[in-house]
Amino acid sequence: MPRYTVHVRSEWLTVPCKDTCSTVLWLGREALRRYVKNKPDNGGLDCVADVTFLMRRCQGQGLLDPDDAIEDVLEDNDFVEVGRFPLHSQMANDVIYCSHNTKYREPQEYIELDGKTLTTENLVKLGKGLYKIQLTPEAVTGVKKSRDLVEKIINENKGSVYGITTGFGKFARIVIPNNKLEELQENVILASAVGVGKPLSQERSRMLLALRINALSKGHSGISSETLHQMIQAFNASCLSYVPEKGTVGASGDLAPLSHLALGLMGKGKMWSPKCGWADAEDVLRAHSLKPISPKAKEGLSLINGTQMITSLGAEAVERATAIARQADIIAALTLEVLKGSTRAFDSDIHSSRPHPGQAEVASRFRSLLDSDIHSSEIADSHRFCDRVQDPFTICCCSQVHGVVNETIAFVKKIILTEINSATDNPIVFAERGEIISGGNFHGEYPAKALDYLAIGVHELAAISERRIERLCNPSLSGLPAFLVTDGGLNCGFMVIHCTAAALVSENKVLCHPSSVDSLSTSAATEDHVSMGGWAARKALRVIEHVEQVLAIELLAACQALEFLRPLHTTAPLETVYQLVRSVLRLEHSPRKREREDLGLIPRQNLRQVSFLHTHASVYQQ
């Protein structure tokens, strides 16, 4: 008998179905009936027949038509969600909230924000939902002083102040009467929430909201303590606005994405939370006992004017680049080993003679992984007295190529770290001076240029990796079976997966064109130079994702090559790497026996374990 697992609120119910010609509506009502039956208080539902609900298939989140036959739209053992979007302004007792099928555990620990000390590491952790947010006492005081000055200037009518008592951009000379100041702030948010494209993931939306809270906590934006507290409450409840990824030119701030962020907090548009899934923002907030924000004077600009979209994506890019750069060293070392390369190119004296820090660091890491007095290698012993005097550049120049990537990442991280803890609003409120001054801190040129540079730098890890994959697959270069497979001809081995690597590298070469070299005048030439930093950030992440995938392919190829050298063993650290990879994915010599795993999962999940292995294995260091 077919069975379907149906998610109602926080419960999963198994519903057997004798007749699959029954409708989806029947399945939903039967699930609700079982839900009510098993709840002491009937689950808060008075009458199942009166509940209006919708249903989605968990896989793909496709909306199900209640009149469709079950057999036409579902498969045996399918997972289904029952949910309801409220039809009335007041939340009824019989509301069933849509639940997202991503597991979420409410964090219990807090990170304190003050606008000065947030790191890229902690911002990424906030994005993952590992921590809640609270402000430091100093930040609370600074925010209050900033708001007090805004209120004082408004109440005393001390002249026109851009964006507070005037219009925006081309309308900056139009003075707004005091009784319209709050309407002005709401209007600018509504007018600017015009982004397009796919929405940011929950993780990136959390990062965006957390970073905006951090910028406001610096005490230069004039936001009220009440509004900032509401933002923190929304973050801590993981109530996340629908934020399209496209639409910012990266000057006058990331207006479109930040406006969408603010829109949800105002109870407009769509929001997501673990409790409700995607629903109307007003209903999501109400479900968490939160009130929508009503922007006061200056607060519309405070919410939407800043570089947080560029910078939050940039922080993720920097952290992922840092991880993959470490992993690239480990993977390249394994490739060197199976290609029977020499360790001489990593001699410490060579790198002391050209003292770039990144180069020396990479060479040290190679020495800690390869044949040495600490870790011996039977493979290295097998060719110790061969007649080869120098390896190809993709092997012997790893320290120089990988080294500059490490220094590039460090340079970019410094800029992103400064930007994370900067006031990028306009105008800027200086409570100690008693002044509000218009400037250009909203311009995203710093993170835009840095992230263009990051993409160019990190791409090189994939470019050199793809060439090493060629050497692993080419029998005339490796001395191994062609494409690392037995029964070549009958089986293709790594032939086409090398094409995948080449395709990704080629895409990266196009993506590495700097977006920040472009600028288009907007807002009737008042915003006549922009950074295009939003695209710089998004394409940097895409480049890094491709680098992760190419290096995953090299890692799999190197592990496969190692099997052709058995019974010889490599060093203990590299054997551990091999075992780690094989615990995830086993590639037999015949691809017909290969487990059908998604190679795309390797970089994001298991290469991190390789990095963790090396980072914490101090015994490997010479």
TrEMBL record:
Keywords: Histidine metabolism, Lyase, Phosphoprotein. Gene3D superfamilies: Fumarase/aspartase (Central domain), Fumarase/aspartase (N-terminal domain), Phosphatidylinositol 3-kinase Catalytic Subunit, Chain A, domain 1. One of its GO terms (molecular function) is histidine ammonia-lyase activity. InterPro entries: Aromatic_Lyase (IPR001106), Fumarase/histidase_N (IPR024083), HutH (IPR005921), L-Aspartase-like (IPR008948), Par3/HAL_N (IPR021922), Phe/His_NH3-lyase_AS (IPR022313). Its EC number is 4.3.1.3. One of its GO terms (cellular component) is cytoplasm. Pathway: Amino-acid degradation; L-histidine degradation into L-glutamate; N-formimidoyl-L-glutamate from L-histidine: step 1/3. Pfam families: Lyase_aromatic, Par3_HAL_N_term. SUPFAM superfamilies: L-aspartase-like (SSF48557). It catalyses: L-histidine = trans-urocanate + NH4(+). Residues 7-79 form the Par3/HAL N-terminal domain. Signal peptide: none annotated. One of its GO terms (biological process) is L-histidine catabolic process to glutamate and formamide. Belongs to the PAL/histidase family. This is Histidine ammonia-lyase. It comes from Callorhinchus milii. The lineage of its organism: Eukaryota, Metazoa, Chordata, Craniata, Vertebrata. The gene is LOC103188896.
